[in-house]
UniProtKB/TrEMBL annotation:
Keyword ATP-binding annotated: yes
Residue span, ABC transporter domain: 7-243
SMART domains registered for this protein in UniProt: AAA
Keywords annotated in UniProt: ATP-binding, Nucleotide-binding
Keyword ATP-binding: yes
Source species, domain of life: Bacteria
Name used for this protein in its record: ATP-binding cassette domain-containing protein
Originating organism: Streptomyces plumbiresistens
GO terms, molecular function: ATP binding
Length: 257
C-alpha cells in the first residue's frame, strides 16, 4: 500500500467577504521532497500558506496529514502537527539579538528566570547545523545581513523539529552568495526527510531545487509539473495563463498528482 503524502489538500476554499480567493485547491507534499508553489501576484499563494499554517483557516475542503483528516484552525494546530512557516517579512525583532529572536515566545526558564545560557547553547547548536556565518549570537538582528536574518528566521522555525516547512519567497531580497546559502539549506532539509513547500517567483531556484511544481492562477489550480521533465516555458505559460485549460489535466497526469 503506497505511503500517503505528508500533507494533502482537497477542495480547499477561502473567501473574504464576497470574494473567493481560493477555489477547490488540490495540493500534495510528501516527506523528503520540495514542492514549488508558483503564481503571479494575487494568485492566492500567500492565502494558501496562511490556510495551511492556521493563520487564516480554510472555509471548506479537506486537509489530511499522513492520510488522516485534520482541522487546522489556528497556528498552534499547525505547529502541533509539525508544520513550520517562514514568512517573507521574516517577523524578526531588529532590536533583539539572535538568541532573543530564535526563542521569542518560547523562552526557556529556570527557577522562574530566563535561562540565557541554555538558550544560547541551543541556538548555537541549531545554527551550526545550518551555517557558520553568524559568529556573534548576541548581535542585534538589525545589524545582520539579509542572508543572516533569513537564516535566523529559518533556525527559529526548526524549534520543535517540524516535518514540513513552508518557505515564502526565501531568496527574494538576497544576493547571489546569500541565495546559494539558503538554497543549500533547503537541500539539507530534503536530505533530512522534511517536506518543503517553496513559494517563489524565481524559476532558476525552482528548476534547481524543486521536485514538483504547483501553479495557482486567480485562486485556482492551473497546472502540476514534474520539474525534471517540464520545460521552464511550460511552467511559465501556466503561471501567465497562456495555456489555461488544456495543459492543466496533462500536467497533472505527468507530475503523478
Amino acid at each position: 500500500m503506497p505511503t500517503p503524502p505528508l500533507l494533502a489538500l482537497h477542495g480547499v476554499c477561502k473567501r473574504f467577504g464576497v470574494v473567493e480567493v481560493l477555489t477547490d485547491i488540490e495540493l500534495e507534499i510528501r516527506a523528503g521532497e520540495v514542492v514549488a508553489l508558483l503564481g503571479d501576484n494575487g494568485a492566492g499563494k500567500s492565502t494558501l500558506v496562511k490556510a495551511i499554517s492556521g493563520v487564516t483557516p480554510a472555509d471548506r475542503g479537506v486537509i489530511t496529514w499522513e492520510g488522516r483528516t485534520v482541522h487546522i484552525k489556528r497556528p498552534h494546530d499547525a505547529r502541533d502537527l509539525g508544520i513550520a512557516t517562514v514568512y517573507q517579512d521574516l517577523a524578526l525583532c531588529g532590536n533583539l539579538d539572535v538568541v532573543g529572536n530564535v526563542y521569542l515566545g518560547r523562552e526557556i526558564r529556570r527557577f522562574g528566570f530566563l535561562d540565557e545560557v541554555e538558550m544560547e547553547r541551543r541556538t548555537r547548536h541549531l545554527l551550526e547545523g545550518l551555517t557558520r556565518s553568524i559568529p556573534d549570537l548576541r548581535a542585534p538582528v538589525v545589524s545582520l545581513s539579509s542572508g543572516q536574518r533569513q537564516t535566523v528566521a529559518i533556525a527559529r522555525s526548526l524549534l520543535g523539529d517540524p516535518r514540513l516547512l513552508l518557505l515564502d519567497e526565501p531568496t527574494a531580497a538576497l544576493g547571489f552568495d546569500q541565495t546559494t546559502e539558503v538554497l543549500d539549506l533547503v537541500d539539507q532539509f530534503r536530505d533530512r526527510g522534511l517536506g518543503v513547500l517553496l513559494i517563489s517567483h524565481n524559476m532558476g531556484d525552482v528548476k534547481a531545487l524543486a521536485d514538483r511544481a504547483a501553479v495557482l492562477r486567480l485562486g485556482r489550480n492551473n497546472g502540476f509539473f514534474n520539474v525534471s521533465t517540464a520545460s521552464q516555458e511550460q511552467i511559465i505559460s501556466s503561471v501567465t495563463g497562456a495555456t489555461e485549460n488544456v495543459p492543466r489535466r496533462m500536467a497533472h497526469r505527468e507530475a503523478g498528482w
